[in-house]
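so the lab meeting is tmrw and i was supposed to have these ready like two days ago... anyway. pasting both below. for each one the top line is the aa sequence and the line under it is the structure tokens. i havent really looked at them closely yet so no promises
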Amino acid sequence: MNLLSRLLAVGLLVSVPAWAQSVPASQEQIRLSFAPVVKQVSPAVVNIYTKRVVRQAASPLLSDPFFRRFFGDVVPHGMPQERVQNSLGSGVIVAADGTVVTNHHVINGADEVTVVLADRREFEAKILGDDASTDLAILKIEPPRGDPLPALPMGDSDKLEVGDLVIAVGNPFGVGQTVTSGIISALARTNVGITDYRSFIQTDAAINPGNSGGALVDMEGRLIGINSAIYSKDGGSNGIGFAIPTTMVKTVLASIKSTGKVVRPWLGAMGQPVTNELAQALGLSRPVGVLIDNVHRDGPAAKAGLKPGDVITAVDGHEIDDAEVLRFRLATHIPGDAVEVKVTRQGTPRSFTVHLIAPPESPPREITDVGGANPYTGATIANLNPALAEELGMDSTASGVVVLKIKRGSIAHRLRMQPGDILLEINGQPISTVFEAKRALSGKAKRWALTINRDGQVLTLQVGG
């Protein structure tokens, strides 16, 4: 009779969990190790080295505006010098054909990208496409003779729970492949200003510089995230790391491999998060969801029946906490997908099927450089359409004429005009198209009255007079 049986017999133990009723019979049975998982995943995690050629003037004086007034781009004492910048990161092979996923910031601006496998084989990589908005990039390497490469299967990041064990694999500080372990600390982190589409996995598995682009895997050896950033005051790991969920990775990968770029679907509605005060005013039991403010009349949301005042509470069964979560959930789909959107309308739950489309290029952008002598001389303007608004990270239901860029030193620059400004009126004339803006700016005026929308605020500017 073993010790547990004796204690039960004399009544000192009332009950024992099932897992405790079997005493380990060997050292192997009590050893806890991640080694089997590490052996499975580490061959598919690669090191990425990039080179970038940077041109710089032979003399620092040539960067001074005073000297450049006389010499321009002509270098009197030697040709511009070139130097090579090197950087490193990590990546993950996700297909046996040599498809590699990494971070956009790892390869951004690189002239050469080299992928080094765990077995020390090196390959020159081709950049298939990258996406700054999600900080993802897709590379391709070609093994000789078409030999298959080790690849990580992708798991479903939507099935993760806080407390799950995870392993991070990467190349921190360039010391070589390193493995760290931890747990899922939080999910759907949207207040991390790393990318435009935010719903990060937070983990306490140590992530350091050089880990970017590496793998976050579960205990089944499945890829569940691409390590992207850390919260740190000194550059090292403080136990707060962030990874891009595979729900987003799958969409970006499929889009780039099929079209060479990322085209995100368009809902045609914008809104604001439901605060505690709004929840009380709307009769909601708790603050959750996104209150729709604007609905594009020709957009998918309007065609499905959504209206201003509706509160979006879920998309495809996933709860919507705020506008960032809504953007993320939509971005994990492609144009043509149908999604189930649950809303609360005047206190009543309702469900709609929305058929997502690509943001339309209507009206045409008509990108125009403004000349002449007016407050916008030196500005580049365009008609704001849903596609352009998505690119600029603006309200996709907005319309009008938007400032794209300002030439340094121009009249518009001196008057502190800003990219992103939307022209509303010029000298009392409403502006809705580039044609109307050009016509209003072509006249001669001693005094200009300008009304603009800047970050949601309507401003009136007086110039001259």
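ok protien two:
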Amino acid sequence: MKLTKKDWIFIAVAVAILATFFLITGKEKTKHVPYDTNHRPYFEVLQKTGNKIEAEKECEECHNDRVIPFPKGHPPKNRCLLCHKMIQPRQ
């Protein structure tokens, strides 16, 4: 089977899409939620309920302008677990 001009265009577009996908994906830049005594209860809530919204309800008690301020340019503060992952260490 001979490849036509349309076939080569299709292959070029497919390669361009894949190359773009691999170029824009990179190393994760957000920090993970630490698995420490302060955050362990929220890991348990997430494990029990499977609901990120339930797990992040108490985040703003500590992560606010008074206790632990956010860095400049930090996005809205009410949905922490959209970016920050809770990865429990293997036991």
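from a quick look at the 2nd one: The domain at 28-91 is CATH 1.10.1130.20 (Flavocytochrome C3; Chain A, domain 2). The chain has a mean pLDDT of 88. will dig more after coffe
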